[in-house]
Design a protein that fits this description.
8 helices, four-stranded antiparallel sheet
């Protein structure tokens, strides 16, 4: 059987961008060299500009021409077949997508081959091979001083600009010259062998390898402006290449012995082991000074430098599990797992994780009788799991350095990381209670789960002892963290007729997070970007938001200093709320009409959390280009508050509801499908990120992520939001 599909469409920026304002004062009007836009206008005239939406090179869609939208195209081809002793699956995919910026694209070519062999009833083997090649170009983003969003959001209307009108720094034409590309190849190979020497004994062995090679290059051409926009070291041309290689090897064995202890009781004893070895190596090379722009290899540069890195981590785990069942309705499981990891401290070796669970299909009992309930299963589980520290975290390390003795430069060692020989894994202990039920002859189903997780031995960074000679911080296992909440999934078919079927699902997730203890080592940890708005403090959510306001009198009015300013009250921080959602709801519906027409819609809600609009603070405090500080009718004292370093007015509720996806599919009648020489043909029109409602008062989307790799620091600072995507596709089956 063959399957082929083709999708084409586009992406666009669908959200608002901040409008920049500038109120022309008398001094601005009299200084046309700095404020040319204020020349000849009346005092207190407010100028407005939205450079990100105005400039034709800021976003593709601003151009208005045939290249106004970011195109996307994807082609898939797959085949499967085989017989009793052999089966296969082959697939090929090629796709490309442009971003909303001119120097942003992503191309991908991938393939997969799966082969299965079953020579006997007791032996089978499978080999899976995957390959993917990607080529991505990324623009300046987030807090890059040269990004389009950062400079567009921070521009001053009517003022002179270093590069282009309305932009604080680089304009789009120069920013689009940024050339940062990554080419990557990823190969995965896995082999699984199943062997059952006797009816009561099964074995499974899986071996796997995952390798990813990347070539990240950043090239700056020779500066022809004489203004050194990329810096003095890059003005003569510069190329930087980062060449990391990720290797991962896995071996997983599982054996199961099954037996009937009595007519009503069955037993399944499982045992196994997993070995994982991860290796990361990298090389960084830098070349400065080109003879010509087309001669931009490292070896042709006037000045070159290089460095390399290597990290390796190995973990080994073994487990033993017993599962017993009584009359196929009461199931009990107990298990224990023992792990070792090369990242553990030298004075710590093994960690033991037990678990136990029970489930009971109570609806199979004669005494069970609830209206409209077809089946109900009660379940409960308790268990432990761990998270190992990062490689080298436990090791005391020294770094190579250079010092001068007399007139001679000599090598030396300097302190790098203090380490901790007692370092071990964080341990999470979790209890889950819940039930699964189906109703009305299978027309509806409900899953409800309560979870309560407590993490002990959490890794907390504490200062190095001053007497040790180390001046940084190191990790110790002293923290305790609690998480609890509910998970609910309701699925059903409210309408099920010959011509119309309606399938719906609603999922609900809640979470309450708390830092229980620092182990007496610390009182709190304050951190954040552009302002210390996050805190780890006992009794509150991890990384929760804390705000500071200006000093106010008992009536709530700002207290002015003798010079007429306001003072930020740093001694009285106020808890605002968590940074992560405390509740999430997803609602999806599928309508099938006349068997051939299918309409799918999905909504997504997240709430109970907050977001730090750092760009709002910067616009008010430094750029002074927001409406709050340029409104001619604003209270002058409140303007001082907006322009201060207070954070209270820039921490917003981040609740939102998004129309994530709408898809309309139509399966063509057989005679039309045959026109494509296909057994089946389906055409689909779809849109993603269609609409949004939010409480957020920042730039636009509360779901933006400034840091992609940090666990706690969240903020909105000129980050690109999710784009709207519209596409059409056709899928053929032969």
């Amino acid at each position: 059987m063959w399957n082929a599909s083709f999708e084409t469409g586009y992406s666009e920026w669908a959200l608002d961008t901040p409008t920049n304002y500038w109120r022309c004062t008398a001094s601005n009007i009299s200084n046309p060299n700095v404020y040319p836009g204020c020349s000849g206008v009346a005092e207190n005239t407010v100028l407005m500009d939205d450079p990100v939406k105005r400039h034709p090179m800021a976003l593709r869609q601003n151009d208005g021409g045939p290249d106004s939208y970011a195109d996307l195209n994807t082609f898939n081809l797959s085949a499967r077949g085989g017989g009793e002793a052999f089966n296969y699956y082959l697939s090929f995919e090629r796709g490309g997508e442009e971003g909303v910026y001119y120097n942003n694209f992503s191309n991908r070519t991938s393939g997969r081959a799966n082969f299965g062999f079953t020579p006997t009833e007791r032996f089978s083997a499978a080999v899976n091979v995957g390959y993917a090649r990607t080529h991505v170009q990324m623009p300046f983003a987030n807090n890059s001083s040269n990004s389009i969003l950062r400079n567009g959001f921070r521009g001053r209307p009517g003022s002179s600009a270093p590069w282009e009108e309305g932009f604080r720094g680089f304009g789009p034409n120069l920013s689009n010259e940024y050339d940062n590309q990554t080419e990557a190849e990823r190969t995965t190979i896995a082999m699984t062998i199943n062997y059952q020497p006797w009816d009561w004994f099964t074995n499974r062995l899986t071996l796997g390898m995952d390798k990813q090679d990347r070539n990240n290059s950043e090239v700056n051409m020779i500066d022809t402006t004489g203004l050194q926009p990329w810096g003095a070291t890059s003005s003569g041309g510069r190329v930087q290449r980062f060449l990391p290689v990720d290797h991962s090897w896995t071996a997983d064995y599982a054996g199961t012995i099954g037996t009937d202890l009595t007519d009503d009781v069955t037993s399944s004893l499982s045992f196994g082991a997993q070995l994982v070895r991860e290796q990361f190596s990298s090389h960084f090379v830098d070349g400065q000074g080109f003879v010509a722009n087309n001669l931009n290899l490292i070896g042709t540069a006037a000045v070159t430098s290089a460095s390399e890195g290597f990290v390796e981590q190995t973990s080994l785990g073994v487990y033993l599990q017993e599962q017993a069942a009584w009359r196929d309705r009461l199931y009990g499981t107990v298990a224990v797992r023992v792990d070792d990891n090369s990242a553990f401290g030298n004075d710590f070796s093994l960690v033991v994780y037990p678990k136990a669970s029970v489930s009971y299909i109570i609806s199979d009992e004669d005494f069970f009788s609830l209206p409209y309930v077809d089946e109900m299963k009660l379940r409960g589980a308790w268990g432990q799991a761990g998270k190992a520290p990062a490689p080298f975290t436990a090791d005391r390390a020294f770094a190579p350095d250079v010092t001068v003795v007399g007139d001679v430069a000599v090598n030396q060692l300097s302190t790098a990381s203090y380490g901790n020989p007692d370092l071990k894994a964080e341990t999470g202990t979790e209890i889950e209670l819940g039930f699964d039920a189906s109703f009305i002859d299978g027309r509806a189903a409900l899953e409800v789960t309560y979870y309560n997780q407590r993490t002990t031995d959490a890794l907390i960074s504490v200062p190095d002892p001053p007497s040790s000679g180390f001046s940084g911080s190191h990790f110790v296992n002293i923290g305790e963290i609690a998480n609890s909440g509910f998970e609910l999934l309701l699925t059903g078919s409210p309408i099920y007729t010959r011509n119309l079927q309606w399938d719906a699902s609603v999922s609900l997730y809640t979470n309450s997070n708390e830092l229980v203890s620092f182990g007496g080592a610390l009182e709190d940890i304050s951190f954040g970007a552009f302002a210390q708005v996050h805190k780890h403090i006992e009794g509150y959510p991890l990384g929760g938001y804390w705000s500071v306001d200006v000093v106010r009198d008992p009536s709530g009015n700002p207290v002015l200093t003798p010079s007429g300013g306001v003072t930020v009250d740093y001694d009285n921080e106020e808890f605002v709320g968590p940074q992560l959602p405390t509740r999430e709801i997803a609602f999806s519906n599928t309508f099938t009409l006349l068997g051939n027409l299918r309409v799918f819609a999905q909504f997504d809600y997240k709430g109970g959390h907050h977001q730090w609009c750092a760009i709002c603070s910067i616009r008010n405090r430094i750029d002074r280009n927001s409406w709050e500080v340029n409104n001619p009718d604003a209270d002058p004292v409140e303007v001082l508050v907006w322009r201060s370093r207070q954070t209270k007015t820039h921490l917003f509720p981040a609740d939102f509801l998004k129309f994530r996806e709408l898809a309309v599919s139509y399966t063509l009648p057989t005679d039309l499908s045959n026109a494509f020489r296909a057994d089946r043909a389906t055409v689909t029109l779809s849109g993603r990120n269609i609409w949004m409602w939010t409480k957020y008062g920042g730039t636009s989307d509360p779901e933006v992520t400034f840091y992609s790799t940090r666990e706690f620091s969240e903020l909105d600072y000129a980050s690109t939001p999710m784009t709207r995507r519209v596409s059409a596709s056709i899928a053929l089956q032969f």
